[in-house]
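Notes to self after the call with IL:
- keep both proteins in one doc
- input above output, always
- annotate only the second one for now

Protein 1:
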Amino acid sequence: MNLFDGLERNARNNPGKTAIIFKDKEYTYGEYNQQVNSIAHALIKFGIKKGDKVSLMMKNSDQFAFVYFAILKAGGVAVPINFRLTSHEARYIIDDSDSVLIFADEDLADIVSGAAGGNEKIQLQVIVGCIKKDNQVLLSEFKSSSIDNPNAGVVETDDAEILYTSGTTGLPKGVVLDHHRILHVGFSAMVRYKMDQHDNLFHIAPLFHSAQLNIYLNTATFLGCTQIIHQEFNAEQTLREIEKYKITLFFGVPTMYNYLLQVQDWEKYDLSSIRLCGYGAAPMPVALLQQVMKMFKTDQFWNMCGLTEGGPGGISLSPEDHKTKLGASGRPNNFFDARVVDENGEDVKPGEVGELIIKGESMMKEYYKKPEETKKALRDGWLHTGDLAQIDEEGFMTLVDRKKDMIISGGENVYSNEVEHTLYKHPDILEAAVIGVPHEVWGETVAAIIVPKDGKKIDHEELQHFCRQQLAGYKIPRVIYEIDELPRNASGKVLKYQLRQQYQEMAVN
């Protein structure tokens, strides 16, 4: 099998089924497959052969789906790039991935031109739209008139994607995934979420991100679901279109759910079609989760706790387990195993903190061209995630922090997630992040960076008193900063290294 078998099967067996809706355009599965084939034949004619890397720097759109599957059908390896990157940042990924061709939206033509300029491996820049630079061609000019299924001999063991990590601690690394691994991401999703061809789902999170791409776009196309694609997240429009298109599956990062709750009169929207909500990419504070459950009038929520290196894959908390284990991260997904281990690789006892390690079919093949980094991450068949977690007597795991984010204050370990969950319970706080800042006596002390809700003022002493009711004294934020917006990457994760850089000079005496 390969990743586009499902697209071809659905085009053959159910060609009139609505496949994609983007803005005012609708495509059936027959049309979807033809659009993909036209680009795939153009790639093959251009000279793309099995294993060639092809970058795409595109926002969510119908064309993203067409280009992505065309690269796979031509035998290429898709390299999605975050469209928010600068030319300098994109250049690193284009160079590192050995890409020979790049697709980009017309409003990114200048960025791509700058990123690819001087790279002798890049043979062509294809622009999706109507405006191009002198050294670029338009997708409409590039397409082939052939719309039959090409045959590049693609099999499960062929590489399909190189997904670059978010680079929250340094330069991003290219995670190599083959067709087999991504297919198992889909198989696991089908079992866990009971996905089938009758589901209607949203693509709101960026499609260059592993969760939206591999769990949703690939799986939904394989099954023959109807997919509504949004180019960017707008909270009120999201609620409106859940009602309009009777969305059954919804995935969002915690920030998105938070903004949905800020929509005035959200109660007027009919969200009853939703049968399942997924959340991931960052921890969901329990207080926020309880509010969105009331909003959607369902307890059918999945906590999806994975990472790009896992395909994504890892652990998850089912709707049933939300009833008794609310706040936990979950247990191993289908086709996965997971453990919490100490520095010697031994399983920790319940209640102790160790590193989460996982093993499964969708786990990455390697970091591209980084053998030493690969050896550090993949040891004895286990992927070492860098996440700190606890495990309870029943085998449920709960992430407490990233190794690099743990705060040590006066010899005591402080896990930022625990403090953040407490801050989110405060009625006037919209968002919060916790970091360690230098302290000449304790080494580090806890700092809270908060975003107040519109029109709200936070009394810092009152907030510390609020925290003192629920946290030990050494965990209470001694320093509180207010900002307008937390820095995040495209997957919704807070860029704590940026916060640390910003506030590390403000030592507390």
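Protein 2 (the one to annotate):
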Amino acid sequence: MPRIILMIIDSVGIGEMPDAEKFGDLGANTFGNIYKAYPDMKINYLKKLGISKIHGAEYIQYDGNVIGSYGKMMETSNGKDTTTGHWEIAGLHLEQSFKTYPNGFPEHIIEEFENRTGRKVLFNKPASGTVILEELGEVHMKTGMPIVYTSADSVFQIAAHEDVIPLDELYSMCQIAREILMGEDQVARIIARPFIGKAGHFERTPNRRDFSISPYERTILDELKDNNYDVIAIGKIVDIYNGQGITEDVHTISNMDGVDQTLTFMKQSNNGLIFTNLVDFDAKYGHRRNVEGYKDAIEDFDARIPELIDAMNSYDILIITADHGNDPTFKGTDHTREMVPLLVYSDQFKQNVDLGTRKTFADIAATIAEYFKVDNPGNGISILNEVMED
């Protein structure tokens, strides 16, 4: 049975977009700047899939055999956040970026949130999630006041210690925030950020949950589901699409758990799309500007690629890409406006095919649509005619 395994290595951009200056991101290159900091990085299998042959990635040294097809994709939508990137991958173009709150949320939003949850809030400004735990984690534990903060993305984030505000209550608070932040005040995601530990040693737990809005139009996920294909969401995929177009889902606790879950589903009898997000690159290393940790995470993923290939059947397609950048060598702590790599492998495909620079992430949706013979919801162009054996 034919399947596509779509792996999102979250935030692993491969160089600035042409309009990066508008976003303050000139010079950003997540993969490139990490590689230049660690030129001995062990990425043998990414190289084998063709990452060193992507235009602009000549700094990656590799003279071996390339078994995959390779290129990079530009983002047509106006943004550099998780939702925008994933929705474009699924076939949508967002001309208007999601609303952000660079000065914190206005009084009427906070007042309603406090009234409905019965808890006053701390902070209400943009911040790095890990830094804010160091600054306010102890105050939160003493007062029971949740830490509300945002970022350059369209998000309302609530941090709470699991011993102070139980998970069920935290998720309920997020649902209340989701109801409030609609219409003119709408944000893309409400994010639960539970943590544990003591002062000086706070750490986030894997119990994060995202409360998103639904895509405004049909995506390739809807087309597959309505045509009786499986759409298996691994990691935060189900949250990003608010469950729309998903037939089965599982959350994960780490990148490696995400790979494990993907392999588990690959070994089962299913027919359609296995769609995985590996969020640690972004959440643990990009936002925290941890270059070495990001490098290690790339190496860890690279080492698992042979397992993914070995688990493929003759009609499977493996696609590895990203949703935006988050250059850990760059200023600030936010995402970076970048192009993303496109690495494709299948037994039925030609090897060493240059896919060039694609005009939109939606080329993935177009490829999925053509492969499964369903309607293409977007304006992308399928790569199948470029890679299929004659």
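Annotation: The domain at 3-92+215-387 is CATH 3.40.720.10 (Alkaline Phosphatase, subunit A). The first helix runs from residue 30 to 37.
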